[in-house]
């Protein structure tokens, strides 16, 4: 496998922006390859991805997808999705903590969101919680004229993900906690349309506030990690 990867790796330098070689001597690197077998049984490499196994506190392993490459003749056929889905299946089979992606491009992030949404739809606790809260919120919302902002905030509180559900989804689907929130919002949007959320100014505003709440929290997290960091001049 190591020799196989060494032959494929130069292609990533041509097709992946910012690609760099990995340490092939580090046993924590893994490769997932996708092959096409013709009628004569001859295999052709369609694409591959690399992933790194690193420690997950307190006694688990996390899988980080590093580079994903589908060769040009096979692109736009769903092969990238198949490669990434294989990693999530591996994470479930080997009981890893979750799956992350290193600096995903917009296209890879879009694939990730789609794959994780499909996984979320298969997670009964997540789907049941969404349907329950959307239904309850829809039945309690009063559409009488009033302060839109106040009413929307009340509705938004009823759409917040229940405590503990993030960890359940992480254990069942191997989705990171931050990504679980995105799945929750997508499912709330889907269920909300069935209950006429798109036709209600209050409910529509409540959903926007729910999304903004996550984005604001993520931005604060990035800023807090950056605080206190300094650049040292090593030339001195």
What's the number of helices? 8
Low-confidence stretches: none
In percent, how helical is the residue content? 40-55%
Oligomeric grouping of the chains: single chain
What is the C-alpha radius of gyration, as a whole number of Å?
Answer: 22 Å
Sequence of secondary-structure elements: HEEEHEHHHHHH
Structural class: alpha+beta
What number is the mean pLDDT?
89
Strand line-up in the sheet with most strands: 1-2-3-4
Detailed description of the structure:
With 236 residues, the protein is an alpha+beta fold. 54% of the residues lie in helices and 16% in strands. It is built from 8 helices and 4 strands, in the order H-E-E-E-H-E-H-H-H-H-H-H. The N and C termini lie far apart (44 Å). The mean pLDDT is 89.
Main attributes of the structure:
single chain, 236 residues, alpha+beta, 8 helices, elongated
